[in-house]
Amino acid sequence: MGFGREKTTYCYFAVATSTSLSHNSLARMIVAKSAILITVADDFYDMEGSLNELQRLTEAVQIWDGKGSSGHGKIIFDALDNLVTDIAAKHRHQQDRDITKDLQDIWCETFVSWLTETAWSKSGYVPSKLEYLETGMTSIATHTIVLPASCFLSPSLPHDKLKPAQYETVTKLVMIIARLLNDIQSYQKEQDVGKMNIALLYLKENPQACIEDSIDYVKEILGEKKKELLEHVLMDGLNDLPKPCKFLHLSCLKVFQMFFNSSNVFDSKTDLLQDIMKAIYVPLQYQTSKLPTTIQSRPKKENSIIYSRFHQTFKHHGNRSFIRQRFPKITMSRNGREKVFIAPKINLCFT
User: Fold this and answer.
1) What is the pTM (predicted TM-score) of this model?
2) Which among 55, 209, 256, 351 counts the fewest CB atoms within 10 Å?
3) 4-24 pLDDT, tens per residue?
4) DSSP letters of 37-70?
5) Which domains, from first to last, does the chain contain?
6) Residue 210 pLDDT more than 50?
């Protein structure tokens, strides 16, 4: 796009490492794709688009017709339309229910919240803390990510929970927590570009306070909301969501904790690279100390079985997209001699 943050790998990494829900690659793919699109669109509203361009894009989303759009706005709308159409088609095929309008409504309220914040910034309007949070918990777009993906879990999200007026408390808690976590790490950047932030609003309402006081104030609210969220996820009877849906909400909290707990890692180009390399690209290093005499003296046949199983673990199966490379040498001692093995290195490739 020529502007903004390129966070494709971050988004894939975040959802892949934050949830242990099995057999839900489709849900994780929806999360990753939605997060990538949100990042690009949010940056367009924050730093690139004129107010007139943003109004046209928002109107296109409201009526779900991109014919009047152009430039970056048209590219974003077309990508959004393709994503929603794809998700709705997969859901229709899987559960024989059309959720197109519900998905459009969720994205629409997100785009409207981005436009509202941009209009505040360009006009110099200062909202109250409550007014800001009502818009900010939507503009952070966690519900835009979690709810559509939850439709593909088993059991899936109840259909009525996709409607903005009927969000469960656990969904609203994830929305507000994500906003607060983001705000305590991004207040400096947003102050520089003239945007509002809950930490900055606290300072405006309390001129005698310092930024540390403001951060402490936000963290106190965060602590209370996190406890509430854990109760809604882990205790029965507090909401109507199936457990997999609640656990996906919890995964969303984990991701924002990772991105914004101690610094703004999401905006950094390097802070997560080492973790991403370890999780996806770098193979496990199998190291051994000197083996006990009882193991060293085992018959050759038994050792051969162990080595055979070790190699089978890394054997290529099916048509999955893997790249085989050489693995560091593994040296093991047997009967006082050194025996060297080379195991294949497997790098996962996104295709």
Assistant:
1) 0.78
2) 351
3) 888 899 998 998 888 876 768
4) HHHHHHHIIIII--HHHHHHHHHHHHHT--TT--
5) 8-280 (1.10.600.10), 285-348 (no CATH)
6) yes
